[in-house]
């Protein structure tokens, strides 16, 4: 069980690291993206994130507070976080009270941002290739497919987006065939079955209360 959990945690860290790697879009830095189109939104979001990382030494050093500000200002406006959390919690979401749902969203967001913080310090020279998007103009849900390129084999990185009144929103991410919500759903279900929804909330809160891992030293 311990080995399985360690493997799962490693996969989650890899997934978030690769999401951050999508920000390495220096060849596209001069491209003026149209955020009204889902694929252009992904380009624009990646460029803005990279620019913020490059211009802030605190973020490069793994400052969780600074990264929280970055994620809140650049990423969260384009994410349907309620849908991501509901999908990760699965069938138990319908059983949660409004207060529990709010707390689950808050703790899950913090968990991902803290993982994101560690990943941001490891962005190197990866670039992203946008794949042709197969969608009709009237579609309200699409998948934007991309590929991370660097040393080694290319890595699949896809986004699910939904069109809302305020524009396109990301509600899931796929790395190497694994969707983010699916990756968390099994572990969340185990926690809820053992300790209830409040038990999952407490488990997430306890994990988020631990000191963030310090950024690796550059030697």
Automatic annotation (TrEMBL):
Alphabetical list of InterPro entries matching this protein: MlaC/ttg2D (IPR008869)
- Keywords associated with the record: Signal
Key word Signal present in the record? Answer: yes
Q: Where is the signal peptide?
A: 1-32
Keyword Signal listed? The answer is yes
What Pfam families has UniProt attached to this entry?
MlaC
Can you tell which superkingdom this protein's organism belongs to? Bacteria
- The name under which this protein is listed is ABC transporter substrate-binding protein
């Amino acid at each position: 069980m311990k080995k399985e959990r360690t493997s799962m945690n490693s996969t989650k860290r890899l997934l978030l690291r690769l999401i951050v790697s999508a920000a390495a879009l220096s060849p596209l830095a001069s491209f003026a993206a149209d955020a009204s189109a889902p694929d252009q939104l992904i380009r624009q979001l990646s460029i803005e994130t990279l620019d913020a990382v490059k211009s802030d030494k605190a973020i490069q050093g793994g400052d969780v507070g600074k990264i929280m500000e970055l994620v809140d200002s650049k990423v969260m406006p384009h994410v349907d976080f309620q849908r991501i959390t509901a999908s990760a919690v699965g069938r138990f979401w319908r059983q949660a009270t409004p207060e529990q749902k709010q707390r689950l969203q808050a703790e899950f967001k913090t968990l991902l941002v803290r993982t994101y913080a560690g990943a941001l310090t490891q962005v190197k020279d990866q670039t992203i290739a946008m794949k042709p998007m197969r969608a009709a103009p009237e579609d309200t849900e699409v998948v934007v497919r991309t590929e991370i390129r660097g040393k080694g084999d290319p890595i699949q990185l896809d986004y699910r987006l939904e069109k809302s009144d305020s524009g396109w929103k990301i509600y899931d991410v796929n790395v190497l065939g694994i969707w983010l919500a699916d990756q968390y759903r099994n572990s969340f279900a185990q926690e809820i079955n053992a300790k209830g929804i409040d038990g999952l909330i407490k488990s997430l809160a306890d994990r988020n209360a631990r000191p963030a891992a310090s950024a690796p030293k550059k030697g």
